[in-house]
Design a protein that fits this description.
The chain has 53 residues and is an all-beta fold. It is built from no helices and five strands. It has strands spanning 2-5, 21-27, 30-34, 40-43, 48-52. Strands 4-3-2-1-5 form a five-stranded antiparallel β-sheet, with no helix packed on it. Strand 2 (21-27) and strand 3 form a beta hairpin.
């Protein structure tokens, strides 16, 4: 699944605007995503819009 970040400004440095990100896994309802800093983290799904299933 691919998602686009639509969340808060304080995470803007971790995500490029309008770039789709691959969800590596879903853990306890949260998305594990590789961010621009070449590290993967868990994020709540409400910060993202699904762009591809």
């Amino acid at each position: 699944m691919k998602v686009k970040y639509i969340g808060h400004d304080y995470l803007d440095t971790a995500f490029e605007k309008d770039k789709p990100y691959e969800v590596l896994s879903i853990e306890k309802g949260w998305y594990r995503i590789m961010i621009e800093l070449d590290e993967d983290y868990l994020f709540p799904p409400e910060l993202f819009e699904v762009v591809e299933e």
